[in-house]
Design a protein that fits this description.
The structure holds 2 protein chains of 2 kinds.
Chain A (H helix, E strand, L loop, with lengths): L2 H26 L4 H22 L12 H22 L6 H11 L24 H12 L6 H22 L4 H12 L2 H8 L4 H16 L7 H13 L3 H13 L1 H5 L4 H21 L4 H4 L4 H7 L1 H18 L1 H16 L6 H19 L4 H28 L11
Helix pairs in contact in A: 1-2, 1-5, 1-10, 3-6, 3-7, 4-5, 6-7, 6-8, 6-9, 6-19, 9-10, 9-19, 10-11, 10-13, 11-18, 16-19, 17-19, 18-19
Chain B lengths: L1 H24 L2 H4 E4 L17 E3 L7 E3 L11 H4 L2 E4 L13 E4 L3 H6 L6 E3 L4
Parallel strand pairs in B: 3-6
Antiparallel strand pairs in B: 1-5, 2-4
The chains are: A mainly alpha, B alpha+beta.
């Protein structure tokens, strides 16, 4: 893995941890300087640890024949996203941002924490608190409630997803890596969702980071800590993250836990996992769990429900992810030509997609309304991972690239 | 070199985006619309914070309904989802007779209708 990529992972890891430090500080009524210091010490300590552990296997920062193009594409991609932020940014984010994520952040201090479960369903009081925790951390340490903070976090996430894919793929195939960077940097649906300040792309970024980290575990088992931490953070970002993390663990059970790696796995996942378990015990159940009743079986057996969801899902994919569909077709063509099954990550993502499908089968809310308001966002949680897995396969296609020395 | 350039690009992009955000939205004081009455029913103990949602009905003038998230009065979610725009987060406890500030995105539309059709619905329990 490139040094700058694991540095980005460390940055995400530390930023997310600051939210935990703040929550803990709020529970014990510590002054805000305490979580700030804990976050700084944790960040510095973890950087030292990762730097020491990964230095032997990190790809050296050597210049390659494509170096100039690396800089040109990187700067152009970052400049496009930054420029677009002006046009797509919203002062307070969109609906979920102000009723849930930014709103919950207001409660994360000692005096107001007790109110957090006393809200109406409208604000989803049982939702996990990773994003509100990070927002509250910066609000409280900077002594402000500026709406620029959630915007800056949303911008960082929107920027990081294409960059993570680009940084991991450019040495394999700079044309594919650059194409992905520009596709995402100019994808209006992606940018809009990013600047709505929702948690869906945060979950997508963490899930993508977990997948990429898992690919490097066989090179250096320190990546187990990253992978496990990202999976735990997925669970603490949105409820769907629990399902995604569970599926990824199942598909990578031996890689994550075998050969004594389970200790590193537990070290990485323990803090977010324990937090999620305690929080879920205290928080009111979400509607999809709470409202299940005798109709659940009839939902399972209702064939029209399946066809309706499938048609809606297909239309949403066509509207939002047309380029992914083309990529998936090329992916399939490569598999057919090489007479191989799709890779493990692709099968895992298809499994995740099936899981999303069944969430809609089981929903107790009006199906049409539920899909109308959430389907595209839920698919965007998986989009970064799908984009990466497809692009990685496409990297095997050789274009008119300069010969490597 | 590559690491420094990449990290520098990211940090610079975040700084520039914040500057752009500030340039786009830095007009808060002139946008605030005061709504100073009709909130006597808000119960302080329900929540330290309140959000205000704004809903437009384009058929017959423009109507705005205050939507507090903490059961001040029931509002159907699908109705609220037709919101036009929102809102100002109050940083402190809401007390009786407090002034709530309602920030309206489409200021032009507000001013066009200021003398006639706007009706603030402040029904509280």
């Amino acid at each position: 893995m490139q040094k700058n990529l694991w540095q980005i992972f460390w940055f995400i890891f530390t930023a997310c941890f600051s939210g935990f430090a703040l929550l803990l500080g709020a529970i014990i009524n510590a002054p805000v300087i305490v979580p700030a210091l804990v976050a700084i010490i944790f960040g510095a300590g973890s950087y030292y640890y990762f730097n020491k552990q990964l230095v032997t296997t990190a790809l050296q920062d050597k210049e390659s024949p494509n170096s100039v193009w690396y800089y040109v594409l990187l700067i152009a991609g970052v400049a496009i996203i930054t420029n677009k932020s002006y046009y797509f940014s919203m002062q307070y984010g969109a609906w979920d941002a102000w009723t849930m994520w930014n709103y919950h952040a207001l409660y994360l201090d000692h005096h107001n924490l007790k109110y957090i479960f006393q809200q109406t369903d409208l604000t989803q009081p049982g939702y996990p608190l990773l994003l509100p925790g990070i927002i509250a951390f910066f609000w409280q340490t900077l002594h402000t409630q500026s709406m620029m903070v959630p915007f800056a976090i949303a911008f960082s996430v929107t920027l990081m997803i294409p960059l993570i894919i680009y940084l991991n793929l450019f040495k394999k195939n700079i044309i594919v890596a650059g194409a992905v960077l520009f596709l995402l940097a100019t994808d209006e649906n992606y940018l809009k969702l990013g600047f709505w300040e929702y948690a869906d792309l945060s979950l997508g970024m963490l899930f993508l980071s977990a997948i990429i980290s898992a690919e490097y575990i066989n090179i250096n088992k320190t990546y187990v800590v990253f992978t496990a931490a990202f999976l735990g953070l997925c669970m603490w970002t949105k409820n769907e993250g629990i399902m995604l993390a569970f599926i990824l663990i199942i598909f990578n059970l031996r890689t994550l836990l075998g050969n004594g790696r389970w200790k590193s796995f537990i070290a990485g996942i323990s803090l977010p996992l324990i937090t999620v378990l305690v929080y879920k015990y205290l928080a009111p159940a979400t509607d999809i769990i709470r409202d299940q009743n005798h109709k659940t079986l009839s939902h399972f057996l209702d064939w029209h429900r399946y066809t309706f969801i499938w048609e809606f899902m297909w239309n949403t994919i066509n509207e939002n992810f047309a380029y992914l569909k083309v990529g998936a077709l090329v992916y399939a063509a490569i598999c057919v030509a090489e007479k191989k099954l799709p890779g493990k990550n692709m099968l895992m993502l298809l499994c995740c997609l099936t899981g999303v499908f069944f969430v809609y089968v089981l929903t107790t809310r009006p199906l049409g309304w539920h899909m109308e308001t959430s389907m595209s966002r839920v698919l965007f949680q998986l989009m970064p991972a799908f984009t990466y897995v497809i692009a990685r396969q496409l990297c095997r296609l050789r274009f008119a690239l300069p010969e490597k020395n | 070199m590559r690491t420094w350039v990449t990290n520098g690009c990211i940090i610079l992009a975040i700084i520039v985006s914040c500057w752009l955000y500030n340039a786009k939205f830095d007009r808060r004081p002139t946008d605030l619309e005061k709504i100073s009455s009709g909130l006597a029913g808000i119960h302080k103990h329900l929540s330290p914070y309140i959000h205000i949602g704004v809903r437009s009905d384009y058929q017959d003038g423009i109507y705005y309904s205050l939507v507090a998230n903490n059961a001040l009065f029931p509002v159907q979610t699908d109705m609220v989802r037709n919101y036009d725009t929102i809102l100002y987060i109050l940083p402190n406890n809401v007390k009786n007779d407090d002034t709530l500030y309602l920030q309206l995105k489409n200021k032009k539309r507000i001013w066009q209708n200021k003398d006639g059709d706007i009706q603030y619905i402040l029904t509280c329990n």
